[in-house]
Structures are given as structure tokens and as C-alpha cells.
Amino acid sequence: MGLLRRRRNRTSLKLRRSFGSYSDGKERGLALCGLVPGCWGGLNAEAVGGCEFFKGKIVFLSFGEVSNAEAIRLNLWLRKEELHTVQYPRNKWKVQNKARGMAMKNEKSKILVFGGTGYIGNYMVKASIFLGHPTYVYARPITPQASPSKIDLHKNLQSMGVTIFQGELNEHEKIVSVLREVDIVISTLAYPQVLDQLKIIDAIKVAGNIKRFLPSDFGCEEDRVTPLPPFEDILDKKRKIRRVIEAAGIPYTFVSANCFGAYFVNYLLRPHEKKDDVVVYGGGKAKAVLNYEEDIALYTIKVANDPRTCNRIVLYRPPKNIVSQLELISLWEKKTGRSFNRVYVPEEELVRLSETTPAPNNIPVSILHSIFAKGELMSFELGEDDIEASSLYPDFEYTTIDQLLDIFLVNPPKPAVAAFE
């Protein structure tokens, strides 16, 4: 245990800032012991087969050569909550709250995520599990041509206790039957599938039991912005989905999550490329809102279950996540000790590119113009009737921009690419 104690602080930091699976058994075991005060000496570092983390807590543990009796002895103490392990399913151990035990699962709403294997959808699924909800995913079928990464993703979700229904969006009867097993539906479908949500809406109307539907918004507040035509076309389709939901009388919550924080930090700062130039869109002073994807997902699961947000729009505008490009770059310079050459792309050039660049590549240009040149995310004041997530849940400790950049220093999230076709 001497080695474990010596490495405890460094490994604990890495663990708390990580989100995903560890592949090295030794490091994983050391990190686990580093987080557990008084971790018993019988835990072999190589015995821990897999860990999945969300907001610094363990979502599930997978053990190798550890007996049931030994695993039950593992007492985890995280965030002042006493936890114990429960076998689920074979050789998988799901962390449960000791006070509420397995009964907690039956008290929680059942959540179905469409697009749960996608970028933001994967965060939603893990947030749902993290908050103790029975979680389901409706995903395209695995075919013989499926990539190994997709197969692994399905296995990973199933290992966390997620029930995956495989099917297409045009399989109406199958979707209806799935909906009748759940309470809440969250759609995280990408832009090319936005209008396919009409099929989900039709199925919800037939099923007749859904307590809340959250369509795939999660960006700017589309009813209060007027971007350039390529981006406007996207928002028109999302607005259509909103109006159809309202007309159908389906209980809903519309979410305006603003920017995916890790996605845009990667896009704006390019930390993986180690370049000295940083592109600034417009003058760089327009304020945007960058929220860490983990927090977006957790807020979303919370509002999906909150009676105060039924048939309302919820905006995610935490004060410490409001930042301009120039402020973001300066903060990154302080943290890295580097200096960056700012290369400005004038607003007029962004407008020109949106008009001359072939579709769909003109869409991201229009989005950059709306957010970072025009500053539309912060172009309107919130009124008394607006619901803002960080005000609604003041006890929730969201990840600030400063903390998000710390994550990029220790364990930077991988860059992602948005789908527009």
C-alpha cells in the first residue's frame, strides 16, 4: 500500500477529471485505491477490469478475478456518500446509494434516448445512469458491416445497464411498443435527422403514456435569433418540430443549451494541434455561452423530470460560462504559459463565405457568424418568465470555463465533428 499512498494525490486528480473508460488495469487500480480512503489491501490493481466515470463519480465497475465476497467488501466513499457495489449484470458492479439501495431504481422515471450512441446522446445516457434512472436507447441495428467502434459502444452501454432497442425510425409499431415501456423521451438526433422526429411524435401520440418529450434542440434559442440563411434553414426545421409538438398537446420541455463547451474549446483553441495561431471570428469580443457537455446532459435529465419545466423553454446560461473568444484565448494563455497569434476573420468575410461556400459546408460558417461575430446567444435579456438552469438548480456545481480548461490541461476531450449531411 506504500506505492498506492505515494501516488494517491496525482492519480486521484486524474480520475476526478476523467470521463470514459480506462484501458490500463494497473493505472485503473491505483487510481481507484487513490480515491478510496482506507481501501483494503486485498484489491489487486490488475483485478479492476473497467471503470466508467461521470462528474468524478464512478458509474460502474467491472471486476476481473475478484470474488463476490471481495467485491462486496469494497466500500467507496465519494462526495460524502456511502456507496456499495451491487452485482449487475454478470461480473458487472453498479454503484448504488446505500441508503436507498435497489429501491431507488423503481422510484425513478424510465428514460429513452433517441440518438444515444451519438456525441451529445452518449452524454445524456451516462447522465441518466448517473442520476439513477432506468435508461434505454433506441439505435440503428448492428449490421455485419458495423464498425468495431460502434459494436464496442453498444457493449459499453449495455455493460452499464442500458437497454438498447435496435430499429429504424420508420418502424412505427416497434417505436410505439418501446415508448410504452418508458416515461420520458429525449431526442438527440443530429441535424440530418431533425425532421425524422416527426415519426417519433407520431408514435408518442399513439403510445399515449409519455410524460415528457425533449426534442433535439440543445443549441441556441431558435425562436429568438435570426442567423444567416444556411443556419436559419436548420433552425426552421427545429421550429417546425416545436410547433408540431405544441399542436399535438404532448408534454414537452424545450432546451436551449447554447454551445457544447468541449466541442467549441477544441474548435476554437485547437489544443491538440499545438499551433501558435488561433483564429478569431469577427472582433472576438462578442459573448458566447460554453457549457461542458456533462453539465448539459445532467441539467437535461433534471429538467426532464421537473414539473416546473413542463411545457416550458429552459435556457442554460450559467454566469461563469459566459465568455468571449478573446477572453477564452487569454485564459488559455495563462494556463499553458504560451502566447498565441490571433488571426482575425472579419464578420464581412464570414457573411461572404456563407454565401459562396457550397452546402453543407456553409452551415458551420453561418453558425460561427451567429455565435461569435454577431453574438446572438447573448443578444437578448432573460425576463421574469424565462427559466435558466443554473438559477433553477443553484446547488448544482456546474463546470466553469476555468475548470473546463483545467480538464483540457490534464485529460483533453477528443475533438468531435458535427454532422450536417
From TrEMBL:
One of its GO terms (molecular function) is oxidoreductase activity. The keyword Oxidoreductase applies. The keyword Transport does not apply. SUPFAM superfamilies: NAD(P)-binding Rossmann-fold domains. It comes from the Eukaryota. Residues 107-403 form the NmrA-like domain. One of its GO terms (biological process) is lignan biosynthetic process. This is NmrA-like domain-containing protein.
